[in-house]
Amino acid sequence: MTKDPFQRRDKVDVAREGIRVRKASVVVVTYNGLEESTVPCLESVLGLTRGAEFEVVVVDNHSSDGTPGYLRELAARDSRVRCLLNTENRGFAGGNNDGLRVATGDFIVLLNSDTIVTEGWLVGLLDPLETGLSVGLAGPVSNAVGNEQKISCAGLSPEEIIKEGRLWTAMSEGDRFDTDRLGFFCVATRRDVVDRVGPLDEGFGTGFFEDDDYCIRVREAGYRLVCVEDVFVYHQGSGSFGKARRETRELMKRNRKRLEGKFAMRYRPRHPRDRQLDLAESYLARMEEGGGRERLLYKTENRLCAAEAIAPHGWLKRYLFRRAVRGIRERIGQASPGRREATA
Predict the structure, then answer these.
(1) How many whole angstroms separate alpha carbon 159 and alpha carbon 241?
(2) Angstrom distance (rounded) from CA 19 to CA 16
(3) What is the model's pTM?
(4) Is residue 157 exposed (0-12), middle (13-18) or buried (19+ Cβ within 10 Å)?
(5) 27 - beta bridge partners?
């Protein structure tokens, strides 16, 4: 039977009822995109975050679209907000490190400015960090991320996608799984982990692989990485990189080489579609052991859809992938009540 990385928390969760009062610092790095991303992001954080004491540290990387003025005004009227206005673009790692240096929380959340959080997001991410000191990083599921944190969403608008995210989280109450890497569009950690592992590596420049680098360092320090499946954060995705595809490819190639040189290894993490299939099998294993059938079938189908959206192109890999998917679907059929009755 496939090893199950899928775990379930107790339904009684005091963190989600707001009993714990340790402070969290939400660090948001901005660079232009005021109306398209920054305003919706900060409005969601300030309007939907409950059950935990928090501050928002916004680091602006020298925007030219009015963002600095907006942030000054926001900080003046909301005591939960502090802003740092850089005089140059310090990149993803540099901007976040600036925020880490001034953050005062026991917990730190790095949150991209092109995200929209949902109800219960903060206490949900903090829970595994509080209840298990072996956990060093925690992240949510999302509609746009380059690993198995991604769930399949058919919606086109943020509202439609967030509605699908709510359905997923309702079907995933208390669920989480361990992983080797988390996307840093939204990632939570503890102050003691940051103190031990150190800041993000600014040598990766404007972006790519600095999150992989940090995940490796956290795991090498002996901590686990956990995806919290009942927390959904909408992610718009990076438009700035997409506008310069050639430059993006060159930057990714250069940073991958830097990462491999830093750790003296060939960095080839397990492909997201294979991890999606791993999770689908883990859900089926739980269902076969007597878990909640309806929700686990829903989640299995979603993972299959996510995997099929990134099916391989080469004939051999595609054949093996289709065979794996077919095997999972056969198990789904065998697990259905109608199929069992017909077989009997």
Answers:
(1) 24
(2) 8
(3) 0.90
(4) exposed
(5) 57, 110
pLDDT digits (tens, 9 = 90+) for 98-115: 999 999 999 999 999 999
- Please state, in angstroms and rounded to a whole number, the distance separating the CA atoms of residues 42 and 260: 35
79, 81, 85, 86 alpha-carbon torsion, rounded to 10°: 140
For residue 304, the surrounding DSSP H or E stretch is helix 293-308
Q: Find residue 60's DSSP bridge partners.
A: 30, 85
Beta carbons within 10 angstroms of residue 106's beta carbon: 18
Q: Which of 16, 10, 288, 7 is nearest to 175 (CA)?
A: 7
Strand order in the sheet with 224-232: 6-8, 175-179, 224-232, 135-141, 186-190, 107-112, 24-30, 54-60, 81-85
Whole-angstrom CA distances from 230 to 9, 34, 46, 137, 165 are 11, 29, 20, 16, 9
- Cβ pair 136, 189 in contact under 8 A: yes
pLDDT tens digits for range 269-315: 999 999 999 999 999 999 988 878 999 999 999 999 999 999 999 99
Phi then psi for residue 51, to 5 deg, are: 85, 5
Residue boundaries of the structural domains of the chain: 6-238, 272-343
In this structure, what DSSP letter does residue 271 have? P
Q: Counting every residue, how long is the chain?
A: 344
Determine the Cα–Cα distance for residues 223 and 137; give it in Å rounded to an integer. Answer: 8
CATH number of the domain at 6-238, please? Answer: 3.90.550.10
Q: Where are the beta strands (DSSP E) in 123-259?
A: 135-141, 175-179, 186-190, 224-232, 234-235
Structure-block tokens of residue 299: 């989640």
3 state SS of 280: helix
Interatomic CA distance for residues 245 and 222, integer angstroms: 36
Give the torsion through C-alpha atoms of 312, 316, 318, 320, to 10 deg.
-120
